[in-house]
Amino acid sequence: xxxxxxxxxxxxxxxxxxxxxxxxxxxxxxxxxxxxxxxxxxxxxxxxxxxxxxxxxxxxxxxxxxxxxxxxxxxxxxxxxxxxxxxxxxxxxxxxxxxxxxxxxxxxxxxxxxxxxxxxxxxxxxxxxxxxxxxxxxxxxxxxxxxxxxxxxxxxxxxxxxxxxxxxxxxxxxxxxxxxxxxxxxxxxxxxxxxxxxxxxxxxxxxxxxxxxxxxxxxxxxxxxxxxxxxxxxxxxxxxxxxxxxxxxxxxxxxxxxxxxxxxxxxxxxxxxxxxxxxxxxxxxxxxxxxxxxxxxxxxxxxxxxxxxxxxxxxxxxxxxxxxxxxxxxxxxxxxxxxxxxxxxxxxxxxxxxxxxxxxxxxxxxxxxxxxxxxxxxxxxxxxxxxxxxxxxxxxxxxxxxxxxxxxxxxxxxxxxxxxxxxxxxxxxxxxxxxxxxxxxxxxxxxxxxxxxxxxxxxxxxxxxxxxxxxxxxxxxxxxxxxxxxxxxxxxxxxxxxxxxxxxxxxxxxxxxxxxxxxxxxxxxxxxxxxxxxxxxxxxxxxxxxxxxxxxxxxxxxxxxxxxxxxxxxxxxxxxxxxxxxxxxxxxxxxxxxxxxxxxxxxxxxxxxxxxxxxxxxxxxxxxxxxxxxxxxxxxxxxxxxxxxxxxxxxxxxxxxxxxxxxxxxxxxxxxxxxxxxxxxxxxxxxxxxxxxxxxxxxxxxxxxxxxxxxxxxxxxxxxxxxxxxxxxxxxxxxxxxxxxxxxxxxxxxxxxxxxxxxxxxxxxxxxxxxxxxxxxxxxxxxxxxxxxxxxxxxxxxxxxxxxxxxxxxxxxxxxxxxxxxxxxxxxxxxxxxxxxxxxxxxxxxxxxxxxxxxxxxxxxxxxxxxxxxxxxxxxxxxxxxxxxxxxxxxxxxxxxxxxxxxxxxxxxxxxxxxxxxxxxxxxxxxxxxxxxxxxxxxxxxxxxxxxxxxxxxxxxxxxxxxxxxxxxxxxxxxxxxxxxxxxxxxxxxxxxxxxxxxxxxxxxxxxxxxxxxxxxxxxxxxxxxxxxxxxxxxxxxxxxxxxxxxxxxxxxxxxxxxxxxxxxxxxxxxxxxxxxxxxxxxxxxxxxxxxxxxxxxxxxxxxxxxxxxxxxxxxxxxxxxxxxxxxxxxxxxxxxxxxxx
Length: 1142
Hints:
The chain is mostly beta strands. Helices cover about 0% and strands about 65% of the residues. The protein contains 1 helix and 118 strands. The longest helix is centred in the N-terminal third of the chain and has 20 residues. The radius of gyration is 65 Å and the shape is flat. The termini are far apart. InterPro entries: Bacterial_rp_domain (IPR044060), Big_2 (IPR003343), CarboxyPept-like_regulatory (IPR008969), Invasin/intimin_cell_adhesion (IPR008964). It comes from Mesotoga infera. Pfam families: Big_2, Flg_new_2. This is BIG2 domain-containing protein.
């Protein structure tokens, strides 16, 4: 500016000199414009440069359009708006001619820029934020962006605001397009969380919460405390265990108050009695102990406690740690009134049994016939002489009704020639038996016996049974008649004894019994004939010389019949010929045709039964015939051409087995014969094919067309399919598929040397000549684009604009602070970082970054913190420490599930909404198990100890067998778990256990049958005892008129000492043996008795009863599972022996 003024000043000085020195007729102002065209921006100023003479010329500057540009008096032009105008300059001076000139002015539109605001918070883009900038207000979109256009250069102020966030303000120097990243921070509020004595609140203290977030407070009372109230902002919300502030927009306070737990104690009774509490109060504090006393009413007994108290202790203490309900059970006293008859046969008793205290007992004794009632006694002391005796039940009592028998007289007499024993007047009690022995003298026999004057026939003994009146018995005798004998027939066949056979002998006919025996008595001595017959058997005849008791063994043979089996030509029958068959038997025949034949017919006894392959004669009782005939098989030969247009075939039809079949195949024009096939399998390559007919056959003559070759080739980078020399039949079509390798494209395809373009397939139609097809390929190139979601960056290695097919690029996701890389999406998946991407196409990959937080789990049970619990969360498993804590870091936001588990506890599964650092409080509860027990069989015993148990408790089971049973084992799901009746274990699961019992084994003791002459040995055997036997005791009886016992010995294999007592006078043997346990499961000889005969004939040695410990028993066997001194008496099978004395 100074330079311009200086130039103007010089010009004016020069002009003054000229004007004062020169003398002109007229004067001209010289005005020269230096800057004829001015360009400037809006708001910009520039001064017009000019020279003027004379220098004191007056200059006037005028803008032709002041809306575009203005000009000052000194010639300074200022741009107002874009456009063009002129500045007029007028130069004037007195006595000078005025001069006017113009300067062109162009006002340029100013440069403007775009400013983009990207607004986010710690979770990502923020939509709906207000951006105040450049005189405008704009709201950010879903990507958190607000874009301002046509912004002039310069320093510009901005303010970004959104409800719940702190405002962000600043300046930006606009000198080009600008990107402004704004991170908003949420407003935070304080929630003051406090807890009174007796519990805690979590989280506690001054808790910071971001605007709009939610937070949950957990209120946890200590053991023995309960929540009294929760107060939020001074307002009570009740005794809740958690409280949530949702969408926080201000400060808050929360306070939890606690109080000691109190409980009620309810007592109930079952039966008649009362329960007293000490102390007796409506409620009790946690941990307080109460003494309970159960007092039964008169005549009642306290049984036990149930509900929240168990056992039978009285009084009993209960600790109050919850509301309790206790029931005292009373039962009325019961008494057993036992009543019996003495003797048992003397009468019957009614009224005995079980009675409640105070009941009236009415006992009635009724004498049986022949008896009379005497009195009632208790412990041998008379209590009543009335048969009907009544009293009140106040104790257990055992009473005996005593009876006595009437007595009768039997008068016994004998005539000459013998005696009767006993004789004379014999006294007999009512109902007793009385035996009389009648003995003839030498040379006499018993002629007759009269009882009460009536003959009962000649016999050597007579027994009055159930005597109920007086009687007489008289025996008479006569000289002996000739001797008679018994003849026994034993009839059998080849399979054993024959029942129902007719035996004719000594004028009688008798049928054999189930043992095949027929017994004839009273047979006089001499040679006697017999005949034995039975349907289906051949008769057996013979003689027997009777000079004593005789046994005749007869073996019958069954009748036989003939079945004549024959077969015609072409097959056979089996068996064939004359086949012998026993009476009543079955016989099967098999009919088999020869190769090439089939069964035509089968005739039985001349009657056709059809073309069967087997026939069974059942229950044969007569002769039969069977005859089989056969016939040759016939076959069908089916022929065809494949394809039908390929040619013709001849020679098919029907043939008999063994015929020769001649087939001929003739190819049509353009075809040639290939082969004959049957079921797809080649059988001949000769067009003329001959064979022998042995089966139905279906044959195909195969023909084929002429073929051409198409040569298919492919260059590097792909393939053609099919490739190589491809054979094509005349008139057929052939398609080719062109496939580029991965990373290649088809470049060109040529058919018979001519290009047809980059096609992916080509078909030769109606091929009638050979051809060629060739393919060329070229490599692919690709681009790789990366994006991010959240805050972070992605780097590529190598970093290039394009990549060749198959090139591997390493991508690395770099999270910003407070963020974590989550996953790849787009053309890359997974969470590996860095990750490799193989370029096999244009790729777009997005790295997803997420905010991460810390989640802390506090695990406890009703006794405090739980260490070693497994917390499964966020894909990890962690074990709680000594404080019951498990801490998980880098947890992404969102609802996430967790499972807390520990052996013996119930699992806890839930979700936590992770929208910040979180603390999760978990209370575990121990598992409970049901232990179910039962007895198998139910009648075998009882099983006790089952119930509900807490994990880790000790379970004590016991099994008690009932009479007649013994304990075997405990089983679970059929598998043995213990052989101890008392079985203990720790409760770790539900279990169902069965106490198994078995009946005490029923063994067998048997006396061996024997035949003896003079002296003999009788063996005793035992078997079927399941347990080891330690002792055997029994009593044997025998007929002293037949046998005399000389000695007894124990079997040496038992290793038992033997004690025995022999009483030949009354026929009693008392046998006792014992020692170490012996296995008597199998048949084992246990003892031997040596006897001598007294008189011939058949006799029995058997078992009798005796009294042991005031109880009648048949036998006693000691089980080694019992104490050695205890003798047990199961129902053992006793089998007597039959002794035959010659």
